[in-house]
Amino acid sequence: MKRLWRLQVVLSWVLAVVLGSVHGHVRRQWGEQVPRESRPHSVTITEFGAVGDGRTLNTLPFQNAVFYARSFADKGGAQLYVPKGRWLTGSFNLTSHLTLFLEKDAIIMGAEESSQWPIVEPLPSYGQGLDLPGPRHRSLINGYNLTDVVITGNNGLIDGQGSVWWNWLRSHELNHSRPHLVEFLYSEEIVISNLTFLNSPAWSIHPMYCSNVKVHNVTIKTLLDAPLTDGIVPDSCLNVCIEDSTISVSHEAISVKSGWDKYGISIGRPTSDIHISRVDLQASSGAALAFGSEMSGGISCIHVDHLRIHGSDKGFSFKTTPDRGGYIKEVVISDVEIDGIRVAIEFIGNLSSHPDDDFDPSELPVIDQITLKNMVGTNISVAGVLSGIDGDPFTAICLSNLSFSITDSAHSSPWSCSNVSGYSESVFPEPCSELYAPFSNSSICFSLPSYSALAVA
Ligand SMILES: *[C@@H]1O[C@H](CO)[C@@H](O)[C@H](O)[C@H]1NC(C)=O
Ligand SMILES: *[C@@H]1O[C@H](CO)[C@@H](O)[C@H](O)[C@H]1NC(C)=O
Ligand SMILES: *[C@@H]1O[C@H](CO)[C@@H](O)[C@H](O)[C@H]1NC(C)=O
Ligand SMILES: *[C@@H]1O[C@H](CO)[C@@H](O)[C@H](O)[C@H]1NC(C)=O
Ligand SMILES: *[C@@H]1O[C@H](CO)[C@@H](O)[C@H](O)[C@H]1NC(C)=O
Ligand SMILES: *[C@@H]1O[C@H](CO)[C@@H](O)[C@H](O)[C@H]1NC(C)=O
Ligand SMILES: *[C@@H]1O[C@H](CO)[C@@H](O)[C@H](O)[C@H]1NC(C)=O
Ligand SMILES: *[C@@H]1O[C@H](CO)[C@@H](O)[C@H](O)[C@H]1NC(C)=O
Ligand SMILES: *[C@@H]1O[C@H](CO)[C@@H](O)[C@H](O)[C@H]1NC(C)=O
Ligand SMILES: CC(=O)N[C@H]1CO[C@H](CO)[C@@H](O)[C@@H]1O
User: Fold this and answer.
1) What spacing in Å lies between the alpha carbon of 221 and ligand 5's midpoint?
2) N or C: which end of the chain has fewer CB within 10 A?
3) Whose CA is nearest to atom 5 of ligand 1?
4) Where does this protein have coiled-coil stretches (predicted)?
5) Which letter does DSSP use for residue 436 in this model?
6) Cβ–ligand 10 contact at 350 (below 6 Å)
7) What are phi and psi of 75, to 5 degrees?
8) pLDDT tens digit string along 386-419?
C-alpha cells in the first residue's frame, strides 16, 4: 500500500515536471490573458489532465497541480488557473504562496461520493466531530500550515453540492461529521475574495488557528432549509477581516468560535481582533452574527459595523453554558439595520451540548463588555432575550441608541432579562430594569481604539 502511494507521488512529480516544462513556454501568454495575476508563475488545471464537463472526477489533477505549484514556493509562488467549465473534484490541499484563480463561469464542484472526502481526526479544540462523535470528513479545499494563499477569481463559483450530505444527515446515513467547503488550519496571510460559495455540506469558510485572514467581496449561499449550514466561522484565529460580502445560509451567517469545553480550554487558543464591516446577512434558522456557543478558548476584541440583517431567526446571539470556561468580551457592534427577525438580540447561558459526558460545571464562562449601538430594526418580534447564568451573571452589557419596531403583539414584553447587568440609553422599546443598575453609567460601555487596516493585501 505504502509503496503504491510512493509510486503515485513519484509519477505525479514526473508528470508535473514534464508538464511544467511544457507550460514554461506558454506562461507569458497567460500572463497577458489573466489580468490581476500577481504571481510570477501560472499553471492551468487542464495541463494536469482535468476535464471540465461536470462528470469527470478531477481530484488527482487538482492534487497534482498543487504539488507542482509547490516547486515555485520559493520563487514568488504560482497561480493555479481554473478556466470556464464545471470541474468536479474530491478533497484537495493547497500549498503556500499559491493563488487559486477561478475564471468567470468556472465552477469547482464537490464530488457527491463521500469516499472523495477522506476521513480525518476531529479538530483538536473540539475533540469530536460536530454532527457525530469521532473523526470527520476532510473539507473540499484545505490549507494546513500554510502562508500567503489567495483564493480568488473573476466571480467563479465553488459549489459543495451539499444536498447529498444534508440528506445523509437527515436520514441518519452519515457515518462521520460533514465536511466544510474551505478550511485552513495553522495558516497565515490568507485572502479569499471575488468568488461565490454555494451549498457547502456544513460550513463554507472555516479558518482555524490562523492569523491575518481577509475575506472580501464574497457571496455565500446555501438552501435556507438545509440542516445547520454556517457561512464564515473564524475559530481560534487572530486578525480576521470580513468585508463587503453577502451571506445567506440556514444556520449562522458568521459564527465566531474558539473550541468546545475541556478540549478548547486545554488548547487555549483565543479568537481575537476580528473586524466585520459592510456585510449583508441572512440566517434563516440561526443568528446572523453568533458568538459561541463553542468559546472555551476565549473571544475578544471584536469590531463590527455597517451590517444589514434580514429574514433571520436572530440578529445577534451570544451563546455559552456553565461548563464551557473561556470568555466573550470587548465586543462593539454598531450601525446596523435589521428587518424581519424573530429575536433581535439574544444572550443565552444554558446552551448545554457537550463533546462527551466528562464536563466540569465549575468552569464558568465570562461574558463582559459587550456594546451594541446605533441600530434600527423593523418587523421584529422580540427585541431581546438576555439570560445569563445563575451565580455567574453576564456583565457590562451596554445598549445605546437602538430603535426596534415590534410587530408581534402576541409577546407581552419586548425584552426579558435575567442574571445580566449593564447600561442602556436611548433604547426603544424601553429595555428591562437589569440594564439600569443604580450606579452604572455610560463609562461601562466598551469602545475599541479606531481600527487600522490589516497588513494583508
Ligand atoms: C493533505 O494534507 C493533509 C494534512 O497535512 C495530509 O494528511 C494529506 O496527506 C494531504 N493530502 C494530499 C493528497 O496531499
Ligand atoms: C509547518 O511549516 C514550516 C515551514 O514551512 C515547517 O518548518 C514545519 O515543519 C511545518 N509544520 C508541520 C506540523 O507541518
Ligand atoms: C467583486 O468581485 C467581482 C467578481 O467576482 C468583481 O467583478 C467586482 O469588481 C468585485 N468588487 C470589488 C469591490 O472588489
Ligand atoms: C456509511 O457506511 C455504510 C456501511 O459501510 C455505507 O454503506 C454507507 O454508504 C456510508 N454512508 C456514507 C454517507 O458514506
Ligand atoms: C477583486 O476584484 C477587484 C475588482 O476587480 C480587484 O481590485 C481585486 O484586486 C480583486 N482581488 C483579488 C484578490 O484579486
Ligand atoms: C416580517 O418578517 C417575517 C419574518 O421574516 C416575514 O415573514 C414577514 O413577511 C415580514 N412582514 C413584513 C410586513 O415585512
Ligand atoms: C434554557 O433556558 C430557557 C429559558 O430560561 C429555557 O426555556 C430552556 O429550556 C433552557 N434550556 C436548557 C437546555 O436548559
Ligand atoms: C443612532 O443610530 C442611528 C442609526 O444607526 C444613526 O443614524 C444616528 O446617527 C445615531 N445617533 C447617534 C446620536 O449616534
Ligand atoms: C460612572 O461610574 C464610574 C464607576 O462605575 C464612576 O467612577 C464614575 O464617577 C461615574 N460617573 C458618573 C458621571 O456618574
Ligand atoms: C444570582 C441571581 O440573581 N440569580 C437569578 C438568575 O435568574 C433566575 C431566573 O430569573 C433567578 O431566579 C435567579 O435568582
Assistant:
1) 21
2) N
3) 144
4) none
5) B
6) no
7) -125, 35
8) 999 999 999 999 999 999 999 866 667 899 999 9
